[in-house]
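Appendix C. Worked example: LysM domain-containing protein
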Amino acid sequence: MSDASIPCPPGSQRYTVQPGDTLFFIAQRFGTTVDAILAINPQIANPNLIFPGQIICIPIARPPGVCPPNTVAYTVQPGDTLFFIAQRFGTTVDAILAANPQITNPSLIFPGQVICIPRGGTA
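Step 2, the predicted output written as structure tokens:
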């Protein structure tokens, strides 16, 4: 019964459900669909019933290292914001968002999420 024992299939990552999460919001956040999440989480009997602390598997929308030309893959770290990432790589938040259409809310990025960072920024 322990969620920690649930193995995630290749092409997916573990995610700990946070307070206020729904499968719809999680799917939006990671650029996938509720159906795709349910397909690799047979332990979710009711898609409307997930709870904080529950471990689920999330399909990886873009495999690490697969980014458009002139971008580089970056794994979001704890404490990162798009603003700080943009500063670190000498680019802009708008440029990062343009390279990552799966990011629907610039204020919501998560540790472990792989995003593409434009190369040759303004710095």
